[in-house]
Specification:
With 544 residues, this protein is an alpha/beta fold. It contains 17 helices and 27 strands.
Length: 544
């Protein structure tokens, strides 16, 4: 049993009893991802928007990241400095992360979807000394540059340097490979990832290199132990932890081939064509993307697919998604999993081990213990009985696979951990068989007429209606009930009084009389974070 791969176990019970984290004394993810594999093996397939395709071997990525590391060193980047990466699914994304780690620098993955305010906050808060940017976000970076005093260097993808920026390709071409990677360990700082900000200002989450081993172990499970030799793709931005760590980096760890496809929008027909064109075997898909794929009729008959496993996270899978997958594909499981920016991926489903329960987060993965505690007085030593809703607390068998700290926020860091247990802020139930069921974020719980209602449960029922594209549910002040339930609904057709009544009746019948939304507002779009989560805080503010 080694850190390089989680062994294949016959059952989850055996895995939980026998598995132990065995992290090496010395560890650098750049060496792990690149130099442990055949340099001629295909590591990354990049399909550009115009349809042209290029293939990059493990040796190519090693050489290119060597050259960039030498260039960053020449620019004065030192161990511990932060280098932000604002690049979509392009080879420059992993090349920059790998170059950072070869130097001992800390990566700050950021999405190209950020506007000026969001980007400025993260660049300034992290104290990024350099940023590698896609041309599409260069103007945004320039607009906020003066507010980021530590930002000395902007590196733009392309071959043309300007007065205010370096050209990425020129830097790579002007330096030589052959750099020796920084002598690091699993405890060496590796990345600052920002929380989504759905419940407050985004917090920088500092992780060490052990993060990538934790994500690789999780991917091995939720991809049903088939990562090695596979071809991976996700539509999610590589700035998101589950996409960067659980797909891109996990794939490189296992010597798989990762496909990159930067694009605007999500065209279900084009996605199926893409999956077939590149023989994608394993894919991480947010549930929203899976719901959009359901609009395509007979995908298995129309496309020559090589799919073996799908994984999903970010919101609970509704039963119709699992039913659609079972009817549409031959023996392709959809394994839901749960994690946090801070805590790695700790609960999940694995068809190899047990049958998924629709809308369940799954069961605790090997290497972690979970308990459900009183959210008002969280004491992990006194967990709540099975079946009772409370806050999920998680304890890793090895502390290093969780985050080190909230960047420059010692009080918030201390509040996250209680006697070795990490509080998630998520309200869940755990049943007699060990399955965990998401109820709500702790601060999203609606208290109406003495009842505690989780908004996601109501949203899930609303989404069952064929004319509902998306839904967000919040509590609004009510003199009689304390709070009333209000739903913001994005319909596929014009909203009407008749549709409003249908939706209220549907929830009343599917859940309980006190859980139906007394107010329904039809909207064109719903506010979401960059990871696709509904921003309920903004919906509450609209209702004030």
């Amino acid at each position: 049993m080694t850190w390089q791969i989680m062994p294949a176990y016959d059952s989850l019970e055996a895995a939980r009893q026998q598995f132990a984290w065995e992290l090496p004394e010395a560890y650098n993810p750049a060496d792990d991802f690149l130099r442990e594999h055949d340099p001629d093996r295909s590591a990354l397939i990049y399909e550009e928007p115009d349809g042209s395709v290029s293939t990059h071997s493990y040796g190519d990525l090693d050489e290119q990241s060597d050259r960039l590391a030498a260039a960053l060193d020449a620019l004065g980047i030192e161990p511990g400095d932060r280098v932000a990466v604002v690049v979509p699914q392009k080879p420059a994304n992993p090349i920059t992360h790998l170059a950072n780690w070869k130097l001992g620098a800390i990566s700050v993955p950021l999405t190209v979807l950020f506007g000026p305010e969001a980007l400025e906050y993260r660049l300034e808060d992290s104290g990024a000394k350099a940023v590698v940017v896609d041309p599409g976000v260069r103007e945004t970076v320039e607009a906020v540059r003066e507010s980021c005093p530590a930002l000395n260097h902007v590196i733009e993808l392309g071959e043309s340097a300007t007065e205010d920026a370096h050209a990425f390709e020129d830097l790579v071409d002007d330096h030589e490979p052959g750099i020796n990677s920084y002598e690091s360990t699993p405890e060496t700082p590796s990345a600052i990832m920002y929380t989504s900000g759905s419940t407050g200002p985004p917090k920088g989450v500092l992780h060490s290199h052990a993060l990538w081993l934790g994500r690789a172990a999780a991917a091995y499970n939720y991809f049903d132990q088939g990562v090695a030799g596979s071809t991976l793709w996700t539509p999610a931005d590589w700035a998101w932890g589950a996409a960067l760590g659980g797909t891109l980096c996990a794939g490189l760890h296992y010597g798989a081939t990762v496909v990159a496809w930067p694009r605007e929008g999500f065209d279900p027909e084009a996605v199926f064509e893409f999956l077939a064109r590149h023989d994608v075997t394993h894919s991480f898909m947010p549930p929203t993307a899976l719901r959009m794929l359901m609009d395509v009729d007979d995908p298995a008959d129309r496309y020559d697919l090589s799919l073996e496993a799908l994984a999903a996270a970010g919101e609970p899978l509704t039963p119709e998604i699992l039913e659609w997958a079972a009817e549409s594909f031959d023996d392709v499981p959809v394994n839901e999993f749960y994690g946090q920016t801070e805590l790695n991926l700790v609960v999940g489903n694995s068809a190899t081990w047990f049958e998924a329960q629709p809308e369940s987060m799954g069961r605790p993965l090997p290497g972690y213990e979970v308990r459900v505690v009183d959210p008002d007085d969280p004491d992990p030593d006194e967990p709540l009985p099975r079946g009772e809703a409370g806050e999920l607390a998680v304890k890793p068998d090895d502390r290093r696979v969780f985050f080190d700290e909230y960047w420059h926020l010692p009080e918030q860091t201390a509040e996250k951990e209680v006697d070795g247990w990490f509080l998630t802020g998520d309200i869940v139930e755990r049943d007699a068989e060990g399955y965990c069921w998401f109820v709500s974020r702790a601060d999203d719980v609606i208290l109406t007429s003495g009842y505690r209602v989780g908004p996601m449960e109501v949203e899930s029922v609303l989404l069952e209606h064929p004319t509902v594209e998306q839904a967000g549910v919040v509590g609004v002040p009510d003199e009689t009930r304390g709070e009333a339930i209000k739903a913001f609904v994005q319909p596929t057709e014009a909203g009407s009084a008749a549709l409003r009544e249908e939706l209220q009746t549907l929830v009343r019948e599917q859940l309980a009389a006190y859980e139906y939304p007394r107010e329904i507002e039809f909207v064109d779009t719903l506010p979401t974070t960059t990871t696709g989560k509904i921003q309920r805080r903004e919906l509450r503010e609209r209702s004030e």
